[in-house]
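Hey, I'm writing a tutorial for new members on how sequence and structure tokens pair up, and I'd like a real worked example in the thread rather than a made-up one. If someone can provide the structure for the chain below, I'll link this post from the tutorial.
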Amino acid sequence: MRSKGMGTEMDMRRNAIKAMAVAAVISAHADHAVAVDYRKNPYTLTYAGAITKNEPGKVNIHPVTYKLNGVDISANVYTPADYDPRKTFSAIVVAHPNGGVKEQVAGLYAQRLAEKGYITIAADAAYQGASSGTPRNVDKPANRIEDIHGMADFISRYPGVDTEHLGLLGICGGGGYSLAAAKTDKRFKSIATVSMFNSGRVRRNGYADSQLGNIQERLRQASAARAQEVAGGKIQYAGDARLTDEEISKLPFELYRQGYEYYWKTHAHPGSTFEYTMSSLLDLMRWDATDQMELIDQPLLMIAGSKADSLYMSEDAIAKATGTKDKELFKIDGAAHIETYWVPKYVDAAIAKLTAFYARTI
């Protein structure tokens, strides 16, 4: 889920107005927490329980920027309550979902893991969110994988980080890219995913392999979009971010229905929308997160909701991870895909599992 992002000042204003119009809080009941309006948080965080100010003896947030292959990367580093740069701490890199930004679910999990004593980092992907790069919202696997390597580069030099104790967490599309990064980047002592989304498989085959019949047609459209792009024409985008409530209700998959609610209403952020450059499909459609899964020899934990319509992707990946004997697919009972992003009891279950996993493996 992604969009044009902020290619121009007009785009920035349009996205901000759009997000402000839909930034609503959800009704609280036993299983739900009230989301945060990003406009009311000094760090534009959108999740319940988000940090509002840095205080001694508590988890603190540190906005940072750094260069990665000429692109300015915008990131947040979270430090634990007992942080002292003279001490040493294990660290965890957190990769955000497709079209998400660091202020949403990636920030929530980064903050919760910092509460468990880890230094964590969540960064906006290059060409997305508050990171630079044009055209906006290019979404190529090579870029997203490099983003993860880049987060590891940065956090490894952060005061107090023990580079021998570095973990990786990928959420949704960030989970698929984290699998790919960990195949070769052995700085990561272990890897975990939450609601892993195999972007290549879905862009190629459709969600739940529902578009196998028109792959070639979509490849021709992507090829034409690239030709137009390099000729100086208009950038073509895939992904419709302007659906009505009625249209959303008619979407065939729960992930997409709940995704619109999460990204456009309850946890809206101006840097996060659905569109991505159509030319990116040339790279996405020939890529697959599960290729060469045997290269992962680190401990692997994959977390997914038992009711998630995306569960098949985690099941496929874990079966192909033949290079490690330390692997587990943990299903959160009753959870759907998007619900693992914010529903307290499901997030709590994921954090408890992650905490025990990282304590043992990094």
